[in-house]
Design brief:
Blueprint: H1 3-6, H2 20-26, H3 34-37, E1 49-51, E2 56-59, H4 73-99, E3 112-121, H5 130-145, E4 167-174, E5 180-187, H6 190-200, E6 203-204, H7 208-218
Parallel strand pairs: 3-4
Antiparallel strand pairs: 1-2, 1-6, 2-5, 3-5
Helix pairs in contact: 4-5
Length: 219
């Protein structure tokens, strides 16, 4: 497990028993590279992730999918697939947000997941399948970080742990040229967040001067 995770207060029966990156590889999730996924905040008015000294990390929503949602099973399936891709995007973003500065943490230091908010695009007043659509996101997240509804679960149990289980809201009725936009809050060890903030600040992508320093060290 991660160095910061090992020193956390998570009780033994709730500790994760596997390397998160093993599941990521088995599921075929691509994490990209420093050059493609670590950027400067120059010219941006929002960010992808915010680190808080408490250990919380807030990740901005990402909107994916090509169609508005309806009760059509094919549309719901399309939304679930888009939700899975949103989860993959958040995993990739969180990986680089944690690791790019070399403070010693990685995805294995995720303690648990706090909250997912899934906003589903549908102007159909009779649409009731927002939770089913957002399940595409939740089940992918549990597959990676642990949970009884994920890919590695059997009979509702995940022998590897439950760090991917989260509180959730799934709301339909929004407009947009995509299918859904989930956002997520996770918990890391406070010591890791403080190390990140002390070295490069609380924001990802990085402010320009910090990006130049971190990129030069990575080259």
């Amino acid at each position: 497990m991660g160095r910061f995770y090992d020193a956390s207060i998570i009780p033994p029966e709730l500790r994760r028993t596997y390397d998160v990156y093993d599941r990521i590889r088995e599921l075929g999730l691509e994490l990209g590279s420093f050059d493609t996924d670590v950027r400067s905040l120059r010219g941006s008015n929002i960010c992808s992730a915010i680190f808080h000294e408490s250990g919380l990390v807030y990740l901005s929503g990402i909107g994916l999918g090509d169609h508005q949602m309806s009760e059509d099973p094919e549309r719901v399936a399309h939304g679930q697939q888009a939700g899975q891709r949103c989860a993959d995007w958040h995993v990739r973003t969180l990986h680089w947000a944690i690791t790019c500065g070399g403070e010693g943490g990685d995805l294995n230091d995720l303690l648990y997941t706090i909250k997912v908010l899934g906003m589903v695009v549908s102007t159909d007043v009779d649409f009731r399948s927002a939770p089913a659509v957002v399940n595409g996101y939740s089940l992918r997240w549990q597959s990676i970080f642990g949970g009884g509804a994920g890919h590695y679960a059997a009979d509702g149990l995940d022998a590897g742990g439950y760090a991917g289980v989260h509180a959730r809201s799934a709301i339909g009725g929004f407009t947009g040229r995509f299918s859904l936009e989930p956002e997520i809050i996770v918990a890391l060890p406070p010591e890791l967040n403080r190390a990140i903030i002390a070295n490069r600040g609380w924001v990802f992508p990085l402010i320009p001067s910090v990006y130049d320093r971190i990129a030069a060290a990575h080259a």
